Amino acid sequence: MVVVSVNDLSYTYRKKPVFSGISFEAAEGEVLGLVGPNGSGKTTMIKCIDGILHPQGEVRVFGDPISSLHRMEIARRIAYVPQSFPEGLSSVVFETIMMGRRPYLNWQTGPEDEEKVYHAMKMLGVEDFAFRKIKELSVGERQRVMIARAIVQETPIILMDEPTSSLDVRHQMEVMEVARNLAVEKNITVLISLHDLNLAARYCDRIVMFKEGALYGFGTPDEVLREDVIEQVYGIEARIYRDGDCPYIIPVRPVSRGRTEE
Predict the structure, then answer these.
(1) Are 23 and 6 in contact (CB under 8 A)?
(2) Integer angstrom CA distances of residue 215 from 59, 85, 105, 182, 210
């Protein structure tokens, strides 16, 4: 079942095209990775899917145009984990995660809501500082809090914008394991932008690859993460090996710009 469909999407910022003519879809219970170099449009695409930005073309969620949905209805369908945490928040971790329950509350919480919050904190390993202030946490700790908040929102779709970028290797893998488990065990569709191609290869069912505002590849990790594609998109020579059924990418060296444009 198609949950998210992106149809001929284009977005321009200050008269400069960010991306143009992009189409792809995400299925129910799928982890879909968005990859590409800096500035290729991954974050903008996630914001368009969430209805934060208003592109040309169309985004549909469960068949409904995102532009036709009220913000609260979007919040019941899509949870969004941004790259950076809002500055100036004075709330503690528990309260911040509880904010994810807002689409279902009239500002009154109950034992069931609290149980969901504690369960999400345990999943992300942030239960030990439940009552510490957000501003006292490291960037990586804050990122895990934001993911926990998205989980308690209990939406069928979760958007994660580079959630592993501020984490050490162990926590990167733990976050990706959480994303994978949400898809497999709860049939949640997870769209996640990543810089690490090996994380994308290991945890994503399919990959959307961007290059300079265009869709360069869309398919399984084996179909998209090829040596020739990586060279053309990232400008590096790479070698691909196998770890069971999973491709494993080893960067070798940058290549000349002339060679990547051949």
Answers:
(1) yes
(2) 16, 28, 39, 27, 5
Task: Give the span between the Cα atoms of 180 and 259, in whole angstroms.
Answer: 37
Which letter, b or e, does each residue of 116-139 get, where b requires 16 or more Cβ atoms within 10 Å of its Cβ?
Answer: bbbebbebbbbbebeeeebeebee
* Distance in angstroms between the alpha carbons of the first and the last residue of the chain: 39
Q: How far is CA 140 from CA 25, 80, 150, 164, 203, in A?
A: 30, 17, 16, 8, 20
Q: Which residue has the tokens 């065990």?
A: 185
Q: Of the candidates 6, 11, 45, which has an alpha carbon nearest to the alpha carbon of residue 25? A: 6
Total Cβ atoms within 10 A of residue 145: 26
pLDDT at 195: 94
- State how far Cα 8 lies from the chain centre: 20
- pLDDT at position 139 is 83
| Cα gap 161→177, rounded to integer Å | 16
- If one counts every other C-beta atom within 10 angstroms of the C-beta of residue 243, the result is 10
Q: Could you give the 3-state DSSP secondary structure of residue 87? A: coil
pLDDT reported for residue 88: 60
Residue the block writes with tokens 């989980």: 151
**How does DSSP classify residue 136?**
G
**10-residue averages of pLDDT along the chain (262 residues):** 97 93 97 95 96 96 96 95 73 92 76 92 92 88 91 96 90 93 96 97 97 95 96 96 91 78 47
pLDDT, position 262: 46
Residues 86, 68: Cα–Cα separation, whole Å:
27
Phi, psi torsion values for 127, nearest 5 degrees = -70, -25
